[in-house]
Design a protein that fits this description.
The chain has about 400 residues and is of the alpha/beta class. It has 13 helices and 15 strands. It folds into two domains: about 25-265, Aspartate Aminotransferase, domain 2 (3-Layer(aba) Sandwich), CATH 3.40.640; about 265-395, Aspartate Aminotransferase, domain 1 (Alpha-Beta Complex). The protein starts with about 25 loop residues before the first helix and ends with a helix. Bound molecules: pyridoxal-5'-phosphate.
């Protein structure tokens, strides 16, 4: 048996691998530079160009780009009319922003449990969480795999709920052949550097509903409109605008839009590489009984954002923390996605208690995200697999 690096053995590789990172090439740099030299740094032509490009990628009718994925979720929640007294059902295995957007609107997040095999929100648990106060569901395509959209959409229709899909992980994913972004009432994307394509910071909301689109536009820009049809006191004065609701400044700059436009040209090759790496990990790990491989639903053709290594804690002599540290010593720097949102002290203070979602809590105790990004080489991938197998050999019961 190989001696683990954490006990003084040689690490599997000499340079560390992180779980995710961006890929920026010369064409990206050139696109940003050109836009910086143009007349518009914001509110210019790159914004509309990007919105149409995202409509093409997602098959959605309308798109509004914003300054972050968090802003996208916020304006989606505003457009859905979420407000004080409302309940919004979401998953605890997500980034806090998926639930925070309900709090921004004065509503109460309600956490449904995850499916123990797909790690996505479980439609059966959603059903148990629905009350007369429920206004919307925020379903997160965790790791890039689409949630069970048919089941969730029929729950929404039955109970008159708005479906907001948090697609921060899932740009490029298709559900039953249809791209994510054109299926739910509102779909929110993030373009943070660890996501599949990046604008530095950035986000977008897509929808097929014109009414929701108009609300998104207002929320992005202070609640201000220049559309005469929306005005309370329309005039012919060319400088005239009205603020008709309370919005924010969530605009994206044109040079960020230029970066994302350039990144989107590479979405297909990024997606293919991510799929290939996830397939290789699945192949290597599915034969190891101490590892649980994430279940893939046949409806989702998944562009994988995260690759989750789930160890079966009962089958190993180490804790997840020991496994994480030993992997780190081998120079594989994993990350944990995610701490259940309601465990965060802010949520704790709001009265959420441990034990609420047993599947999510069990998952949290066993998960680690392995390196997954476009520029990972085949050798890097084999190093990761080697390190995991080395640890399993050492720690298995
Ligand atoms: C990244 C992320 C967000 C927030 O996006 P930002 O662009 O970082 O604001 C929201 N939800 C999920 C699931 C994410 O992974």
């Amino acid at each position: 048996m190989e001696k683990l690096a954490i006990f003084g053995g040689d690490p599997v590789r000499s340079t560390p691998l992180t779980y995710g990172k961006q890929y920026i090439d010369d064409s990206d740099v050139q696109a940003v530079t050109e836009t910086l030299k143009s007349d518009y740094l914001t509110c210019g032509p790159k914004i509309t160009e990007l919105e149409s490009a995202l409509c093409q990628v997602t098959d959605a009718k309308y798109c509004v780009v914003v300054s972050s994925g968090t802003a996208a979720l916020h304006i989606a929640a505003m457009a859905a009319g979420i407000g004080p007294g409302d309940e919004v059902i979401t998953t605890p295995i997500t980034f806090a922003a998926s639930a925070n957007c309900a709090l921004y609107c004065g509503a109460k997040p309600v956490f449904a449990d995850i499916d123990p095999e797909t790690y996505n929100i479980d439609p059966r648990s959603i059903r148990r969480c629905i009350t007369p106060r429920t206004k919307a569901i925020i379903a997160v395509d965790f790791t890039g795999q689409a949630v069970q959209l048919d089941e969730i959409r029929s729950l929404c229709q039955k109970h008159h709920l708005t479906l907001i899909e948090d697609a921060a992980h899932s740009i490029g994913t298709r559900y039953k052949g249809q791209p994510v972004g054109s299926i739910s009432d509102l779909t929110a994307f993030s373009f943070h550097p660890v996501k599949t394509v990046t604008a530095g910071e950035g986000g977008a909301v897509t929808t097929n509903d014109e009414g929701l689109y108009k609300k998104l536009l207002l929320a992005r820009s202070h609640g201000i409109t220049r559309d005469r049809e929306q005005m309370h006191h329309p005039t012919d004065d060319p400088w005239y605008y009205e603020q008709i609701t309370l919005g924010y400044n969530y605009r994206l700059t044109d040079f960020q839009a230029a970066l994302l436009l350039s990144q989107l040209k590479k979405l297909d090759i990024f997606a293919a590489r991510r799929k290939a790496i996830a397939a290789r990990y699945n192949e290597a790990f599915s034969a190891i009984p101490q590892i649980q491989v994430q279940k893939q639903i046949p409806e989702s053709d998944t562009v994988r954002h995260l690759y989750i290594l789930r160890i079966r804690s009962g089958a190993l002599t180490c804790t997840r923390r020991e496994f994480f540290d030993a992997l780190y010593a081998e120079n594989i720097h994993s990350q944990i996605h995610y701490l259940p949102v309601y465990w965060l002290p802010y949520y704790e203070q709001l009265g959420y208690q441990k034990g609420l979602c047993p599947n999510a809590e069990a998952y949290y105790g066993e998960c680690m995200s392995l390196p997954l990004y476009y520029s990972l080489t085949d050798e890097d991938v084999e190093d990761v697999i080697h390190a995991v197998k080395k640890l399993i050999d050492h720690y298995k019961k």
